[in-house]
Amino acid sequence: IMKNNFFLISMDVQMPGMDGFETAEIILGHPHSAKIPIVFLTAINKDKANVIKGYETGAVDYIFKPVEPDVLKAKVEIHMKLYRLQEELTEKNKSLHVSQMEADSANNAKSEFLSTMSHEIRTPLTAIIGYCEFLLNDDLSKNDHQKYVNIIKDSGDHLLEIVNDILDHSKIEAGKFDLEKIPVDIHALIENTKMLLIGKAEEKGLVFNLNYTYPFPEMIHGDPVRIKQILLNLCSNAIKFTSEGTVSIELNYRPSDKKMGILEISVCDTGPGLSETQQSKLFSSYSQAEKSTSRKFGGTGLGLAISKKLAGLMNGDILLSSAPGVGSRFSLIMEIEETEDIKLVESAQAAECLIPDIEKNAMLINKPDILVAEDNGINQKLISRLLKNVEAGSVTIAENGQIAYNLIKENTYDCLLLDMQMPVMNGFELAEKLRKTKHTIPIIALTANVMESEKKNCLDSGCDEFSTKPYDKRDLVEKINTLIKAGQETTVEMS
Q1: Within 10 A of 156 (CB to CB), how many other CB atoms are there?
Q2: Crossing angle of helices 142-173/303-313, nearest 10°?
Q3: pLDDT: is 60 or 243 the higher one?
Q4: d(CA 492, CA 489)
């Protein structure tokens, strides 16, 4: 019995040397055989004390002699079924226990995540509120005033990054994340990424390098905003965790015979590196490499998880190579379709010619007259100041859609910036009314709702473009310039 597994033991009570009761006590007392059901065989059917002793010993049943084959068979089958059922229940209980432990672990991770989010959101909010109060001090020097404004601006930018991470994560988890597929100048995108981050690297005394392996495609098709988001995240992490040495972006392209080349953009650093345990947690949504990470460096812990999922949505991946004391290499891998008209950048000199004049879109062209439909007084002042700073010809404010509609009937404007949530007549109603009257004024929707469904609703109502709040000055200027350049000026008078 100790060397084999049995479903059931049928055993005579009266046996020489060691009777059935003693044998049963030994069998049921051993861990290997403790759960095997024992059925006693006995001819002493009138001795109730013996029967009771058998059950007290641990037997599950009695079969009395002379044995009836049908009864024996039926009882054995019943007890075998009961044994199997007990085993199944035991396994299910183990599984439920494991599942419960996993659920508890996930809930603990989410609770810790929410605690981290609360801390991350409150930190910049505290700075914004606190330093706004300092600005109310009449005795403030000009230098202090500028310093406090910069702190408020940096804190606001940081808060926006946190909110964007949370929204991106929610949309990806819900399966409602859409990607664009448009031409992307990958060289210009990488150069622009370096320009945005080199200041932070230099503040820490780090060298920021760009290393290109030629040739590589001049243009690829993808989502430039999301590719840049991944690179910014990888580079920001590299700068954050590297105390000395270098951070590098490396671009490699491997053509193939199957009309699908492999584009690899790697971010390398000379930071502390990561152990295998840390690497296993790195791309999880609700955890960081170490619990001390958020306390020491800050951050939501969502950036890499989002980047990994974005890469997957682009039929790509993010690979990691790292070791303690060696540094880390994060590589964004994407398949690129090789078409006949694809142009390759063959040298550094050819690449330099591709870098656009980034400042050329920083100002509005031809000083356009712009109508802004916005009901919030603070946002009215903010957008007016922004547009005047980028050389708008004139800026007219309408407090709701009805006022904007009446102004458009009586005046000519080069572009309409339209808040979608307003009293009297909202932005959707105004856009639809203008398009029904065949008015061609370019319309850019302004909204704090960044969901893809909101963008679709804005475009379906008649808006030509979509821009989110808080305002991204360069993005807004570029969109206004593009619409005006496309010749979408007001040419139809309303009756």
Answers
A1: 15
A2: 50
A3: 243
A4: 9
